[in-house]
Design goal:
single chain; 1193 residues; globular; calcium ion binding
């Protein structure tokens, strides 16, 4: 390709000149191509890899030089001799003579450079190539990555790093390529290559270690291998990126959400000192936004725009606090350098004025921000104040327009029974017609008379007063200064009547509620009267939610709970409803209004406890692993004992899922919820560790898990809240414990403070790091469990071994993942649903089946493979939903690999029986199923309806009445059906194509010709007994013409309307006396002088045809590259002609060559190995040796 001219000082260093003229030189890199260049070539090749030279991708180049100059310019490079030769010839024909006209060498150089730049610009314009942020060096790396590992364009490279890969005890210096879906490594040292490809989705452990020998080592583990990399220039950056990419892969396994690049990132400045790939910038921005959202509890779609160091004037202590300001599309936030000193959140919807104040020595570059509640915030020491003010002004403008827009239209809602749909609903601000609770349920059921007054109420009053004083000093609402004093007040307990307000504030739910007015009411209205699996589960659990509390002993509380849970299930169908959500939601409803409780539930499920409440409670299992790790570090003397008893896994799920609400008395558990909304999950871990620590001696003496659970249960039952003004509520958990000695009372406030004193140093970012490690383990364990259950379910139904089934399942799943990575014809959500039974979780469509059919199924060979795969797929797809599950897949493969001759022939016979009609979704005439499968196999846009348009076939086929064989688990077509003449023709075509790559090809062709002749005769004889015919009809059906041998003149696949015919060699035709005049496969043309064309036939092969009833097929017949194109012309098909399976079987048994072919054993292990190597890079290779994933040399 042509490149922008670059100066080269030493033209001959490491390059060999192949052609030259006065102005241009064509060179080849030493060590490339034939011969290898000896030792010098090996050294050059090694240097190219180690130094990341572009010569690995482009080993040819063209240099420009004027005769009197010592400076050379690179103007083109090429990956092949052919490519570079084309450029060379163009220069000789178009430029060489023109250059001799110039007198000044500078003019020649300017002209050549301008000409090359013009060619590049024209090429970019014609091919619609847009300028991007990736440097030329990075584009070279992308080209290398695709060339070395065979990756398609859809696989995006994120970054690459120099490092060493340890093979045994020997390090291999090379390059680590990190793409969206794969980790790849390549090394070339003195003629020895090392190549590695690992899917992120296969990684079970990723850790950064440090030893004396390897201070910066990264260990990557999969189920079957371990890889160690070291000698990184920046190990922290590399490891963070690896973590991020592995997280994306885990997310894809969890909920099918693949990576989508953010195209809204601002372009880098031209003079930016460090130019990284656009994808790397995108991932860095995502990581920063994620940390920003977690720090300030912001909505999950908030994107960080930037941050800067500054100071904030805090009026409560009259100081300028040093910290960082963060600006995003909807918020301005601040946090002090000392984490607990002060933090601040200012939503832009609350901002009224942003202005630059006058600078002074005391207060340089100040910025004043005023809000609607008359608070003013003064920032100073801003480095680029003018730019910052402009960004804030831009975001303010967008915010005001958003608020105006939301007065008419609210966001999209997912409110469908069976599928996720996005609809816009118009919401005029009218009085809401949906009945919702407008006040917290606790206010309705607080049993307190006005004159009642006791010490507890006095203490509650003092708490309220303390909070009011705090609001007066630090501000109230979302813009409040959050300081260490705020935390102290939370730890002392939030007053009953302030809980709802402060939970909303600390959780960040107040922001989502403020920006989505009317959303909840509309969601309730849309979900009313709708029923699905989630609503059934909700109804079942409604009366189990705090049944001891009076608020949920009548219909008002139950109805509010039903509305909130149902609305959330419709908002987020991926979660729907999960047990334990009812308990948490009922507590939220006690202290918050119904709409507030809904948004608190949103914050809880989607931000604060991510993935806790899905069908597999992945988040809770992840945190259970984190808790085990924390217990091992901080209570080591107890850890081994607890692991032996298996208690940690039991207790942590119930404690974490319900935030201790199900294991503590209610009035104590709400204090835990208070602290959780302020501190996050860190508080739950602290508290759980404190409970273990407080019972350490009793637990060490426990003999079994039951005894340990009793010890912990009695301790938690005894946790009391002496400040509570609520009447005592009986605790169900305490009713189930034994009648032994009651445990001494434990004050909840003392327990919480103790957790801060002993374990308060555990940081949120450390927990996130541990969560990543556990997430890999948990999700891979779930995947392994799914695989084992699937294999266990079907191992008794098939002859495959357990190991073979596990390998086949891995390939089946890998095919699904590959289509997720690089696109497919169907929606990944349709093919992978974790909520379904194990066998149904992963399914594949036709395109994916074709990929596996090619590498695993023994009948896949030649040009008919796609057509045969289509027939096979339709037969396996028993419910006609255009998807097959693993059982259906194994059923089909099992027949081909382990079935006897009769079973295989039954399968082949059934594949050509395609009953029923398919209806086009555009409402036009039905499409013949047969025509759909044979002519339009490139689903889903294959058949052409009566409007002459390509349409999507309606995949709901009529019941196969009369076709279903109930005795056969597989392949639901009955053998009682006869094969028509058209179907028989297609069966014969399949047979001929099936043998195209067999060593005994000619012998099999000959045997097939004999069988075909016999069956044609049987069909003709059968007509005499099936339907009365006139003499003229009988005479016309007789085949009396002589056999004609017509040489094939053209074997190229030029015409899709080619004919498929009997193929045998010249010698066999002469020697075979059993060949009859019926040796015809399918039709030729109506005219005898038409040239016949067929694909992949040798020149010495003859076509045998005659003028019998099959001899006059129309233009629709043929054996083109897509497997026969369609049926023969209807005029040439004899409707009375038919054969049965018994006749087909008996005929095949007469030919030993065919019997041996179908009884030949299949080496499924070799096919699985080949399939694994092929699927690793998503490209088809003929054999294992075509792509060695392991190390060579």
């Amino acid at each position: 390709m042509w490149v922008n001219p670059e100066e080269v000082l030493l033209a001959s260093a490491l390059w060999m000149t192949e052609r030259a003229n006065p102005y241009f030189i064509l060179q080849k890199r030493k060590g490339h191509g034939d011969g290898g260049g000896g030792l010098a070539g090996l050294l050059v090749g090694t240097l190219d890899v180690v130094l990341d030279s572009s010569a690995r991708v482009a080993p040819y180049r063209i240099l420009y030089q004027t005769p009197d100059s010592l400076v050379y310019w690179t103007i083109a490079h090429g990956s092949s001799r052919r490519e570079i030769t084309e450029h060379w010839e163009w220069l000789e024909h178009n430029l060489l003579q023109t250059l001799s006209i110039f007198e000044n060498e500078n003019d020649i150089t300017t002209f050549v450079k301008g000409k090359i730049q013009g060619i590049i610009a024209e090429y970019n314009k014609n091919h619609d190539i847009k300028e991007d942020d990736d440097t030329d060096k990075f584009k070279e790396a992308i080209a290398k990555f695709r060339k070395l590992f065979g990756m398609p364009e859809e696989e995006k490279l994120v970054n690459y790093y120099s490092c060493s890969y340890w093979k045994g005890k020997v390090p291999r210096q090379g390059w680590l390529y990190l793409s969206i879906n794969h980790l790849c490594f390549y090394s070339y040292l003195l003629g020895k290559e090392a190549k590695l490809v690992v899917r992120w989705a296969d990684i079970t452990q990723l850790e950064k270690n440090a030893t004396l020998l390897l201070p910066d080592m990264v260990r990557v583990s999969t189920r079957c291998s371990e890889h160690v990399f070291s000698v990184f220039l920046n190990v922290n950056e590399t490891f963070k990126l690896m973590e991020q990419l592995a997280n994306i892969a885990m997310r894809q396994l969890l909920d099918n959400k693949g990576f989508e690049q953010d195209r809204s990132l601002p372009k880098l400045k031209k003079k930016s000192p460090k130019k990284v790939s656009a994808l790397k910038r995108d991932l860095d921005a995502r990581a920063k936004s994620e940390r920003y959202r977690a720090l300030f509890r912001l909505p999950k779609d908030e994107k960080l725009d930037g941050h800067t160091d500054c100071t904030l004037w805090t009026p409560f202590n009259k100081m300028h606090i040093l910290g960082q300001m963060f600006v995003s599309t909807n918020y301005i936030c601040f946090t002090s350098k000392e984490e607990t000193t002060c933090s601040l959140i200012i939503p832009l919807r609350e901002v009224t004025i942003v202005e630059k104040a006058d600078s002074s020595n005391v207060l340089p570059s100040p910025l004043s921000i005023s809000t609607k509640n008359r608070m003013t915030f003064l920032f100073a020491n801003l480095k680029d104040r003018d730019f910052l003010v402009q960004r804030i002004s831009d975001f303010l403008q967008q915010t005001s327009s958003k608020i105006y827009f939301e007065r008419d239209i609210t966001g999209s809602l997912n409110s469908s029974d069976d599928e996720v749909g996005h609809h816009n609903y118009h919401l005029p601000f009218l009085p809401c017609l949906v009945p919702t609770a407008t006040q917290a349920l606790m206010t309705m059921y607080r049993r307190r008379s006005p004159e009642e007054f006791n010490p507890k109420l006095a203490k509650e009053f003092l708490k309220e007063q303390a909070w009011k004083n705090h609001f007066a000093e630090y501000g109230q609402g979302v813009c409040m200064y959050r300081t260490e004093k705020t935390k102290e007040l939370v730890l002392k307990g939030i007053p009953e009547n302030m809980r709802g307000e402060l939970w909303l504030l600390f959780s960040g739910a107040i922001n989502e509620m403020a920006t989505h007015p009317g959303y909840y009411e509309d969601l309730v209205e849309k979900s009313m009267g709708k029923y699905n699996l989630a609503t059934e589960e909700i109804e079942r659990d409604l009366h189990r939610s705090l049944p001891e509390h009076p608020a949920f002993q009548n219909e008002m509380g139950i109805a509010a709970l039903r509305r909130v849970l149902t609305a959330y299930a419709f908002r987020n169908p991926n979660i729907g409803y999960c047990q334990a959500m009812n308990i948490v939601t009922s507590v939220l409803l006690l202290y918050a209004k119904e709409e507030e409780a809904f948004w608190l539930l949103v914050a809880l499920c989607e931000r604060m406890l991510p993935d806790y409440y899905n069908t597999r409670v992945v988040g809770a299992l992840v945190d259970q692993g984190v808790f085990e790790e924390l217990a091992r570090v901080y209570v080591p003397q107890l850890y081994d004992c607890m692991q032996e008893l298996g208690v940690i896994s039991t207790i942590s799920l119930s404690w974490f899922l319900t935030l201790f609400l199900s294991v503590m008395p209610f009035e104590s558990a709400v204090v835990v919820v208070d602290c959780f909304f302020y501190e996050g999950i860190k508080l739950i871990f602290q508290l759980a560790l404190s409970v273990l620590d407080a019972n350490i001696h009793q637990l060490l003496n426990c003999k079994d898990d039951g005894e340990a659970m009793t010890v912990l249960g009695r301790y938690l039952d005894s946790v009391t809240n002496k400040d509570s003004t609520l009447p005592p509520i009986p605790h169900l958990h305490s009713l189930l414990t034994d009648d032994g000695e009651p445990h001494p009372e434990v004050d909840i406030f003392k327990l919480v403070r103790s957790s801060y004193e002993k374990f308060g140093f555990i940081r949120a970012d450390v927990i996130e790091q541990m969560r990543f490690k556990q997430r890999l383990r948990v999700i891979q364990t779930i995947e392994d469990t799914t695989k084992r259950n699937v294999v266990r379910t079907i191992v008794t139904e098939t002859a495959f071994s357990i190991d073979e089934l596990e390998e086949l399942y891995s390939l089946f799943k890998a095919e699904h993942l590959t289509s997720c990575y690089w696109g497919g014809t169907s929606n990944p959500m349709d093919r992978h649903d974790p909520s379904l039974p194990y066998l149904e979780q992963y399914r594949m469509d036709l395109e994916q089946f074709k990929g596996l059919f090619t590498v695993l199924f023994p009948w896949a060979s030649g040009t008919h493979t796609d057509s045969l795969a289509l027939r096979f797929f339709r037969l396996l797809d028993q419910n006609a939903d255009a998807l097959i599950n693993f059982r259906e897949f194994i059923t089909g493969l099992g027949v081909l690999c382990h079935g006897d001759l009769t079973e295989k022939l039954k399968l082949l016979y059934k594949m050509h029986l395609l009953p029923g009609k398919s209806v086009c979704v555009c409402g036009n005439k039905p499409l013949c199923v047969y025509a759909w499968h044979v002519a339009g196999f490139n689903l889903p846009f294959g058949p052409i309806c009566s409007r002459k348009q390509k349409c999507l076939p309606h995949l709901s086929f009529p019941p196969l009445v009369g076709y279903v064989d109930n005795n056969s688990l597989s392949l639901s077509l009955s053998l009682s059906l006869s094969l028509s003449q058209g179907q028989f023709i297609e069966l014969c075509k399949t047979l001929y194509n099936m043998f195209s790559e067999d060593p005994n090809e000619q012998e099999l062709y000959h045997a097939t010709a004999t069988v075909t002749s016999l069956l044609l005769e049987m069909g003709e004889v059968g007509k005499l007994f099936c339907s009365p015919s006139t003499d003229s009809e009988l005479n016309s059906s007789c085949i009396t013409g002589p056999m004609e041998d017509i040489k094939l003149e053209d074997s190229s696949p030029k015409d899709n309307g080619t004919s498929s015919a009997m193929l045998i060699s010249d010698d066999e035709t002469k020697d075979d006396t059993s060949m009859s005049s019926y040796s015809v496969l399918s039709a030729g043309s109506h005219e005898m002088d038409d040239k016949l064309q067929c694909e992949d036939i040798a020149e010495d092969t003859v076509l045998v045809r005659n003028s019998g009833p099959l001899g006059g097929a129309g233009p629709h017949s043929g054996a083109g590259p897509h497997g026969a194109g369609g049926l023969p012309h209807s005029a040439s098909i004899d409707k009375d002609w038919a054969i049965t399976f018994e006749q087909f079987l008996a005929s095949v048994l007469t030919e030993q060559a065919l019997v041996q072919y179908f009884e030949k054993p299949v080496d499924i292990a070799a096919r699985i190995t080949n399939g694994k190597n092929v699927r690793k890079v998503g490209q088809a290779h003929v054999s294992v040796s075509d792509y060695e994933i392991s190390l060579s040399g």
